[in-house]
Amino acid sequence: MINFEIDRVKAFMHSLLKTKTFDKFNIKSVEIITFAKFSIAPKEITSWDRLKPYVLNIVKGKTLPSMKIVFSLNKESILKENTDFFLNLYFSENRLSFTTGTASREFTLDKSASQVWEDYVKDFFVKNAFVEKDFFEEV
After folding, report:
1. In a domain, 139, yes or no
2. 63: in domain
3. What gap in Å lies between CA 114 and CA 117, rounded to an integer?
4. Mind listing the pLDDT tens digit for each residue in 29-67?
5. pTM of the full predicted structure?
6. Distance between CA atoms of residues 120 and 126, nearest Å
7. Is residue 89 part of a domain?
8. For the chain, first and last CA: distance in Å?
9. Within a domain: residue 112?
10. CA–CA distances in Å: residue 75 to residues 17, 38, 40, 79, 116
11. pLDDT over 90 for what percent of the chain?
């Protein structure tokens, strides 16, 4: 598990809400607080692409929202094991932080799936210019 915060909030939020960058991710849950609290918990596997217009509609406006999104990635995308991969996004008071996580369906001491997922997330953030190449050397 890695936990990190990025500074390029405006560029990240633009990419999240107005481009296809995160469309391959599925959504486990979304919680947004603006003038009211909105919670989205899909009953079936739902892609970010499908929920993105609703989230954009909720967050646009003059009030800076607080937001928590739990992304997941289909295990076949990076590793064929009985493991689920999560990326938790937290946005509050113009601060943007992330935590990675994995959930194995079977008990194991092997942490290679977690390492593969962490490497995938690091590469994803560098490739999309959310952080500099050497950013994760400090994390």
Report:
1. no
2. yes
3. 5
4. 999 999 899 999 999 989 999 999 999 999 988 888 999
5. 0.89
6. 10
7. yes
8. 11
9. yes
10. 24, 28, 22, 6, 11
11. 67
